[in-house]
Amino acid sequence: MSHIVTVQDAVTAFADFMEPTAAELDAIGREMPVILADVELLDAQIVTLDRTPTELDARRIRRARRRALAARVALFNRTTAASLPGGAA
Fold first, then answer.
1. CB 71 within 8 A of CB 33
2. Cα separations (Å) of 6 from 3, 9, 12, 66?
3. Phi, psi at residue 34, to the nearest 5°?
4. How does residue 82 score in pLDDT terms, banded at 50, 70 and 90?
C-alpha cells in the first residue's frame, strides 16, 4: 500500500510570507516600460499572424520594435548610471 503525502513546497507555494519584497516590486516598477513596450510589440505581431501584413502593419511593428529597443536602452542607461562609482558617466 502506498501512502499519499503532500509536498510541502506545493502546499506553501502561495503562503502569505511568499509575497514579493519591496525590492522586487521596485525592480518590476523600473522594468515596467520595457514590459509594456514588449507587450505592444507582441500585439502588433499577433495582429499579422492570420493575414498578410499590410504597409500599416509593417509600420506598426517597426514602431513597436523601436519603442521596445528605446525602453531597453533607457533601462540599461539608468541601471548603468546608478551603478557607476562617484556618479561619473
1. yes
2. 10, 9, 10, 48
3. -70, -45
4. confident
Residue 60 reports pLDDT greater than 60: yes
Q: Is 81 exposed, middle or buried (0-12, 13-18, 19+ CB in 10 A)?
A: exposed
Q: How many CA atoms lie within 13 A of 78 on its CB side?
A: 12
Q: Chain-wide mean pLDDT for the chain?
A: 86
Whats the size of the chain, residue-wise? 89
Residue 87 φ/ψ region, left for φ over 0, alpha for ψ in the -120 to 50 degree band, beta for the rest: left
